[in-house]
Amino acid sequence: MSLRGGLRLDNHKARPFERPIRSVSPPPQLVLALDQGSGEESIPIVKAGDAVHMGTLVAAGSGAAAALHSPVSGIVREISVRTTLRGHGRCIVIENDGRDERAATLAPVDWRALQEATLLEQISAGGAAGLGGAAFPTATKLALARAARADLLLLNGAECEPWICCDDALMRERAADVVLGAQVMLAASGAQRCIVGIEDDKPEAIAAMESAASAASDARIEVRALPAVFPLGAEGALIAAVTGREVPHDGLPPQVGVVCQNVGTAAAVARLVQDGQPVISRIVTVTGSGVREPCNVEARIGTPIADLIAACGGSDGPDLRHIAGGSLTGRMLQSDAVPVTKGLNCVLLATSADLPARGTEMPCIRCGDCATVCPAGLLPQQLHAAARADDAAELVRFGLSACIECGCCDYVCPSAIPLTARFRNARERQHLQDLERRRALDAKARYERHQSRLAEQAEAERRAFDEARRRARGSEPGTD
Questions:
Q1: CA 263/CA 26 separation, integer angstroms
Q2: Which residue among 92, 391, 426, 479 is least enclosed by CB atoms within 10 Å?
Q3: What is the pTM of this model?
Q4: Which long-range contacts (CB under 8 A, 24 or more apart) does 365-372 make?
Q5: 182 phi and psi, to 5 degrees?
């Protein structure tokens, strides 16, 4: 096992395990962000006033966005722009009637009897997505793996970032679901074996998963303990550590024979086949010194984060920082009214003792520490200079697209330079520039097609005029 760079960090994960996973009651109103974390929106198929049941499809999957289902029964009140984890975005607002009446179409899936294509359709219809944070449609990844004839399904149970422990809690309490989900995804992807990678600082989860795998009597499933090094849970790093295969920075895991899924995604697939329930809830770690009772909670998608905090005894302390995600890769929350999404794995209420304020930014001293810890093997010093200059060519040259935004370089920088934020902003600028470039090319293509149609129309009219004139001349007296 090898991992380039990385950090060994205090994990801050003990307190949430003082109590089991708690269920959060669904609120009177749920807000379903159409972008659940992948960066793309699903397409609404309901309108204001429509009645829905728990599990009713409310938005169809599109591209990198998975299908979205109502977490409760009730009425669609509106589709409007709301504050979300990604800033602002369109959301479906559902008023909960408190009955939790299931959609009549929900039923267990006899996955062993289905052809691969049909099983993939069922997984897609259930809204399964990457619950590790990316929220990319599960069925799409499995289909790509099948097309590439990937041989290995790699379940990510590493959960390497400090504070986050929802996957650890899941594996401790629901290991059998993870194993069943692995079996379903093996069937759908065509992979021959499955490795569940778990960091060795999670002995309870490792023991539970080994017991569940043994009970399933499936020799294809192996549980493997890995060193607790951040960011081992990043997809490319995990694949390299477990298999020795390196995914090209502009490629995908199936190209090296691997499909990687989160253990939470596996459990969601298990629930789908067991009772037909689509992805309408997830486990979220609510932690930090600013929470009275840190805990892992299970909440419906669309539940306000404030309700999660209340279920953990509420907040306590002045000047708390509310962060979605972990201490290194998380994003500051604009409001505790922001709803839970499929991609939300942690809510961190951090005090100044948890996360000391970053010092004043100073000039780079070129110590090279950032390059030493970078798991992607980049040169953050040069990449930072290119980002500050907004030099697109240099950003490409120094591998901006390969940056996984893990925050290792930030953590070790003695000059307190916000490297990851600069790289993220540069990537967003590039994305917008690429989008504008594509829009300009599309507009040019539309204009050229329009001009071509006008030219064809003019040519057709000229030919019709010439034909009419020829005929008129042919009918004049004395033309024979």
A1: 24
A2: 479
A3: 0.88
A4: 365/414, 365/415, 367/414, 369/412, 369/413, 369/414, 370/408, 370/409, 370/412, 370/413, 370/419, 372/5, 372/412
A5: -65, -40
| Structural domains of the chain sorted by starting position, each given as residue range(s) with its CATH number in brackets | 15-23+105-282 (3.40.50.11540), 360-474 (1.10.1060)
Amino acid code (one letter) for 346: C
Residue 349 phi, psi dihedral angles, 5° rounding: -105, 95
| Per-residue pLDDT tens listing for the chain (480 residues) | 456 789 999 999 999 999 999 999 999 999 999 999 998 999 999 999 999 999 999 999 999 999 999 999 999 999 999 999 988 999 999 999 999 999 999 999 999 999 999 999 999 999 999 999 889 999 999 999 999 999 999 999 999 999 999 999 999 999 999 999 999 999 999 999 999 999 999 999 999 999 999 999 999 999 999 999 999 999 999 999 999 999 987 789 999 999 999 999 999 999 999 999 999 999 999 999 999 999 999 999 999 999 999 999 999 888 899 999 999 999 999 889 999 999 999 999 999 999 988 889 999 999 999 999 999 899 999 999 999 999 999 999 999 999 999 999 999 999 999 999 999 999 889 888 888 888 999 999 999 999 999 999 999 999 999 888 888 887 655 554
